[in-house]
Design goal:
heterodimer, A: 375 residues, 10 helices, B: 584 residues, alpha+beta, 6-stranded antiparallel β-sheet, 32% helix, binds protoporphyrin IX containing FE
């Protein structure tokens, strides 16, 4: 082994990881504050709107801003659903006619923070800006932590559970911030940053491993290709998981409100309509699914190189396959009548739970060729 | 969302009715068959089978699997007498070759074929036919807009439509111009046929992957061999320690190449505190010959870096120590000499050793014990290995004599010796004590039974040898599948219609509408682009354009015509002629 482990770098790295976790914690608080504050502001706007609506006799105004997008078109879309349902083409497609749903929402949602397209709009949200700034600071520190770890070990920093967690958290936050450039997903901030904190803490407390060499089984350029794509796809799945979960809550809320019930989940005002959530999470899931397909394929190629067979139903392979099939099911569900919407969201959630299971339980408790938790 | 929920709530009645109707036995046998086929090839069934496949794959990760680890399965059944056997009857130790797992994926692939073939035919027809007729009311399409060309521009309605057709063609659309001599000429255009092609390629390639895997199972083979430094493996059936042929394997398939292990080096981690002594590099120097007459070639075999030879690949999958011993029998003759492969048992290459000496006379001899590369003994007298490297190698053995039972022909595991019928010579409880040997030392067995010398230590490697003829095609199909998948997800299939007409005051009125087939979040952007393209071609100032279409609707000119309220029928009209109904 020509490379000599640099433990000083390793120590710096650990310090930076903790610093990053600290910064994220402040960012988390800011994101939560943003949710609370916007929710309050939006309620005020809504109340005014409701009053105004009351004045105009007979006018039906959606009570909650967040629902604006779908509620406004609900009648029509339901109609479309019925009329179009028996026609050829993927059923239920008519209710997702490209941009029109989004556009419809854009105009009507007065105080909405993220419109149907999830483009930036509306007024400035100071807490959200602070939160994003803090997250950027956190991710820079975190990135430095990942890089110093790599320098300390003289290789890519993903060779054991500690490194999967720290690097995975970094990628999750980085992907989130990258998506933020084009889409206003700041309502996911608490979730993503919260998850990153959990991962960093778990890495430092439960999985701490000093910088070290790779075991021979992992010494391959396929480690770089296979694992980086897996981590990237998982980061995307993380986003869609959060969106699908919110979609379920939002759908429930919209239903309640449409039925004239009270809006008990005020903070959900900040979140776009269920339909918008579904559409964007579909698009992200499609990218992530391609990524996962590559993960599976490259894993098989690597397995062929390392063990002489490209597929052997090793525990890790089984679960990677299960995840792939579940998301293939998700894509099919989106094209099957009666399976779009809520059910597709459930599939996306189940798929992510499998990802988490594959990463935690399988890596640690199942014996297989992939048991390299590094502990 | 709520609307969808509502719609779902309403549906049970008609669905139930449809189901009842479908289940009516009045169909007759042929009708039943057709009904079953329709069901099987429906999207809903595909989804159901996919999810079922995911669920069915899980038990394979919960229970030990025979193909991977037959011994663990046997042990598992022993350890769980209550349900161990039951699980076996349910084929839960052979999940991936079980009847139920096979049934699911075979059904899935039958469904897949039943789905792909009609779709392919329909798509072929669609690609050869003209874009669907122009809808009466373009304004009901999800994307709609109007343009007005001033009277002075000298662009009559028919010229405008032809010019638009040319532009759309350039943009990759297939265009048909209709009625261009009439008062209201129009055009229909369509693009993105690759989307469906991609989808078909993707699904077909999955079949290809499956077939390739099956071919590998039929014609492939694999085997294992342990090679001590200096050993040579020749690729013939007898050369293998263990051999697993595919269903259709013929021994003539084996090319008689040879591979000799010259030297095997292991590098241990000597710097990381937590990982001290962990192996970080395995390096096997080998000499290979393609066939007995071919020139010898020096190669390096490493983990993750197999050697390819004679259509097979050779993988480094295991390693350990092989103490070299010389055993003399009671008559003073050398009954055995050479390395003995020690089987890994614990940390730091703590390994078990079994030596059988059937050639010893007058009595056959047997030895059972341990090899420790760096021997340590605790205060309680328990020995363990303190390091994986050879710092203090030690052989600790018990010895036996008697009939080893090798002569009756029954195959025996070389790593096990049944001592129940043998007479102990040496062990801790006997006066003679156990045997403890350091390299270079010799121990004389009691009762004149002979002696054992520990001459030195060699290393050995375990290699796996695989031949899989389906591998390359599996890879090709997998790559095709991904390519198809990407095309299918990222090409958008769109239709555009344009209609022109001449206003009483001489201006040329142009309206256009767009419709996506399938998921398409960029349809609005496409509408914008087409609008810009037309406006640019006809030199219309893009903001002025709106002023005249229909008073008061200027702002909605490029946006969806009427926001969904009549989205229903607008979508209906053009999709009427759409491809195969997959979910009737
Ligand atoms: C081995 C099992 C299968 C897998 C892994 C699978 C996977 C996929 C994936 C990932 C997609 C989305 C990407 C794309 O549009 O190309 C898809 C789409 C599709 N699949 Fe499958 N599929 C399978 C079996 C089937 C079967 C049996 C059918 C027919 C009954 C089917 C019909 C379709 C259709 C119609 C689409 C296009 C949906 C759309 O328009 O978005 N698939 N499939």
């Amino acid at each position: 082994m020509p490379f000599v482990i640099n433990e000083t770098m390793g120590a710096y790295s650990e310090l930076l990881m903790l610093l990053a976790a600290g910064t994220y914690t402040v960012a988390f608080i800011a994101f939560a504050w943003d949710l609370a504050k916007s929710s309050k502001a939006l309620r005020a706007i809504d109340l005014k709107a409701a009053e105004a609506a009351g004045a105009v006799a007979g006018a039906k105004v959606p009570v909650a801003a967040g629902v604006g997008a779908a509620a406004g078109t609900s009648e029509a879309v339901a109609g479309a659903n019925r009329v179009d349902a028996h026609l050829a083409g993927p059923a239920g497609r008519a209710e997702r006619p490209s941009s029109s749903a989004a556009k419809a929402g854009a105009g009507s949602a007065a105080g909405q923070t993220a419109d149907g397209d999830m483009r930036y709009a509306g007024e400035r949200r100071v807490p959200a800006r602070v939160a994003v700034a803090l997250t950027i600071l956190g991710v820079l520190i975190h990135g430095a932590g990942v890089v110093t770890r790599a320098l300390g070990a003289g290789r890519v920093p993903w060779g054991n559970m500690y490194e999967f967690l720290t690097t995975g958290a970094f990628v999750a936050v980085a992907v989130f911030l990258l998506v933020l450039i084009r889409r206003d997903l700041r309502f996911l901030g608490t979730f993503v940053v919260g998850l990153a904190i959990i991962m960093l803490v778990a890495a430092s407390v439960a999985y701490w491993t000093p910088v070290g060499h790779l075991v021979p089984a992992l010494q391959s350029y396929w480690l770089i290709i296979h694992v980086s794509i897996a981590v990237l796809s998982s980061a995307l799945f993380t986003l869609t998981f959060a969106m699908s979960a919110l979609q379920l809550v939002q759908a429930h809320r919209q239903k309640t409100i449409a039925a004239g019930g009270a809006d008990k989940l005020g903070f959900m005002r900040l979140v776009p309509s269920a339909l918008s959530l579904e559409n964007l999470s579909y698009r992200i899931n499609a990218i992530a699914f391609i990524g996962w397909t590559f993960t599976l394929m490259f894993g098989a190629i690597w397995a062929e190189k390392a063990w002489g067979r490209f597929w052997g139903w090793d525990t890790k392979e089984v679960w990677t396959f299960v995840i792939w099939v579940v998301y293939a099911g998700y894509l099919h569900a989106r094209a099957t009548r009666g399976w779009t919407g809520t059910r597709a969201a459930w599939l996306s959630i189940v798929g992510y739970l499998c990802v988490v299971f594959n990463f935690t339980i399988v890596n640690q408790f199942f014996n297989g060729l992939h048991s390299y938790s590094g502990l | 969302m709520s609307e969808r929920v509502k719609a779902n709530k309403k549906s049970p009645a008609p669905v139930a009715a449809a189901k009842a109707e479908a289940a009516l036995p009045a169909l007759g046998p042929l009708g039943m068959l057709r009904w079953a086929w329709t069901q099987l090839t429906s999207m809903r069934t595909a989804l159901f089978l996919l999810l079922l496949l995911a669920v069915a794959a899980v038990p394979g990760s919960l229970f030990p699997q025979r193909p991977a680890n037959p011994f663990v399965v046997t042990q598992y059944i022993k350890d769980h007498p209550e349900y161990g056997k039951l699980l076996d009857t349910l084929q839960l130790y052979d999940v991936y070759s079980s009847a139920w797992f096979s049934a699911i994926y075979i059904l899935l692939f039958v469904s897949l074929i039943g789905c792909v073939v009609p779709r392919a035919i329909a798509h072929y027809k669609a690609m050869r036919s003209q874009p669907p007729r122009t809808p009466k009311r373009l304004s009901r399409l999800p994307e709609y807009g109007t343009l007005v060309v001033p009277a002075g521009a000298g662009l009559p309605a028919s010229d405008a439509i032809n010019s638009a057709a040319g532009l759309l063609r350039k943009r990759g659309y297939r265009v048909e111009v209709r009625d261009d001599g009439g008062a209201r000429p129009s055009l229909g255009a369509e693009r993105g046929f690759a989307k469906e092609v991609g989808n078909l390629v993707f699904h077909t390639s999955l079949i290809g992957v499956l077939v390739s895997v099956a071919i590998g199972g039929l014609f492939g083979y694999s085997g294992q061999r342990i090679l001590v430094e200096g050993d040579t493996f020749v690729n013939t059936l007898v050369g293998y320690d263990q051999f697993t042929p595919g269903t259709n394997f013929q021994s003539s398939q084996l090319q008689p190449y040879s591979i000799q292990l010259d030297k095997f080096d292991v590098t241990f981690d000597r710097e990381s505190p937590g990982k001290f002594g962990q192996p970080i590099d395995f390096n096997a120097e080998v000499t290979t010959k393609e066939n007995p007459d071919a020139p010898a070639k020096k190669e390096i075999l490493k983990v993750n870096d197999p050697v390819t030879l004679g259509g097979t690949s050779i993988y480094l999958t295991g390693n350990g120590y092989a103490p070299v011993v010389t055993i003399r029998d009671g008559a003073g003759n050398v009954a055995m000499q050479g390395p003995v492969v020690a089987k890994l048992q614990g940390d730091n290459y703590y390994s078990s050793v079994v030596i059988k000496v059937p050639d010893a006379a007058p009595d056959q001899l047997g030895f059972v014990g341990f090899f420790l590369p760096t021997a340590f003994i605790t205060d309680e007298g328990i020995s363990f290995s303190g390091d994986p490297d050879l710092f203090n190698p030690q052989l600790t053995l018990n010895s036996y004599f008697g009939d080893l039972g090798l002569d009756n022909g029954a195959p025996q595991n070389v790593f096990e010796l049944d001592v129940s019928k043998l007479t102990p010579l040496n062990n801790r409880n006997l006066d003679a004590g156990g045997i403890t040997l350091a390299p270079g030392s010799t121990f004389t067995l009691p009762d004149g039974k002979g002696s054992i010398s520990f001459d030195g230590v060699k290393r050995y490697v375990g290699v796996d040898i695989h031949h899989n003829p389906g591998q390359v095609s599996a890879l090709i199909f997998a790559l095709l599948a991904v390519a198809g998948l990407i095309v299918s997800l990222y090409v958008n299939r769109r239709r555009v219609w344009v209609r022109t007409g001449t206003h009483e005051d001489g201006r040329t009125m142009v309206e256009y509408g767009l419709l996506a087939r399938g998921e398409d979040h960029r349809l609005a952007a496409e509408a914008q682009a087409i609008r810009k393209m037309l406006a640019g071609e006809w030199q219309l100032p893009s903001d002025e354009v709106n002023q005249d279409g229909a008073p008061g609707t200027a702002s909605t000119q490029q946006t969806p015509s009427r926001q969904g309220h009549n989205g229903a029928d607008s979508v209906t009209t053009p999709t009427g002629s759409a491809g195969p109904a997959k979910d009737k």
